[in-house]
């Protein structure tokens, strides 16, 4: 056939195809199969559902479902029968499913909710996994107070874990409302027990008790499993005596135990409930406010940039053990495990602090204690899940004056937490970076943080490194907050064949130092990977003791923990650069640390008052 003929065929095509040469008439196929649904034409099997006989075609049923394939062609007695009874199938839902089997289409929006749930059950029973998933996704969008309980029971019955989670989250957000709905008493015992066991099913416990009482009147609470989920110690003694006792659903001993626990045990030890939202709960939009501290209007305004020596922060005086600190009250008791806050960082000052949380400002629990560590700028803090109403931040030290300055605070719940040792992060990523608020506070370079900018290629005789004069000073790095560190890596300047000797120390407070590695008797070149016993680290001091070329120690790059276990291969570009440096070495003047431009310092003449 000529190319012109091909062109003619393409131009006279009636409907667009997926691609040139493809013909797709799926809609016609669906229409033709739909015409066979529930008709006697070519029917070879009759399905009996709720006494009604439905004509069907074995080969279509078997092609669409492993269940029907096994039933009709698997050697069972049904494979020889022309009439098959399906005793557990609801008729309306089965007709909907049968139409889906023949057409691949299902219009759920035209169906009643009970039919949708019955169809979900049939999809599960007959192995239509894609349909089961699709119905589940649609049910998520249709969740409402009048159907969530039925959907939750169905999701439990069919093992739809994702749908169960969505229902739980919906019920968490509407706990007080659902407790008063008539649909609440329709929940199965298993579904209700699992719901009440959630810390995030948050409502006043007396309301939960009343809802459970209504459920118990309409259902059998076998073994008191539902009533045992009510957290009686969270109720006031007055409610225990005036509400719980007259209901006569709690045994006297259990009631006395609840009163004793309420009065004798620390409030922080009680099994509190709280809202669970995956966003910052320390914000005015959710009802949070600062209730203690000076300049309270700034802390929760979400402004992380417009602050200076005069404004943009909340503060408290550092006086001693009796300090009340800065206190934030959350709008609702909330489940949190992460606090993110910004310490004032317009200069190189450091702060020490601790953080406590409480439900009623009577019993405080310390979740973060960095009172022995020097911290700066952004703090990312993690702890065990806790229900919290109040957050107290108490500064214990400022390297410049006696005032603790806090620019911003956020509190939230995180699904994934980093590896922790006590309240200190054990990172598997480099924390000696500008993004993690590390800073070089001693050393000479063209730019203060050259050592931490991650550039391990663009360095030469004049720039790209940090240095210090041998026998005088050091290279000193401060991390933003304490981390548990067990390795580090540094790149010694290696544009020629020189070698260095050095030692490295670590500290948490800049005055007490611990040796990391002593390479003062070693000849070291280029990349250095150092491993040591895990320890909390804030400061790292690198002290050069020897250079075979001159009296200056040069370091190009630093990271901790080490991101590589072995020395990376030299790239051709690096090799050419090194060769060029070696060729020019004879023309270089004797080098001293004073030849490099000294690191600029912040122009801060006054301190915060």
Automatic annotation (TrEMBL):
Family annotation (Pfam families): BACK, BTB, F5_F8_type_C
Gene Ontology cellular component terms for the protein in this record: cytoplasm
Biased composition regions of type Acidic residues, renumbered to the chain: 594-609
Protein name: BTB/POZ domain-containing protein 9
Low complexity: compositionally biased ranges: 583-593
GO biological process, one term: adult locomotory behavior
PANTHER family, alphabetized: BTB/POZ DOMAIN-CONTAINING PROTEIN 9, BTB_POZ DOMAIN-CONTAINING PROTEIN 9
Naturally occurring in which organism (per UniProt): Diabrotica balteata
SUPFAM superfamilies xref list: Galactose-binding domain-like (SSF49785), POZ domain (SSF54695)
CDD domains to which the protein is assigned, alphabetical: BTB_POZ_BTBD9
Domain spans labelled BTB: 43-110
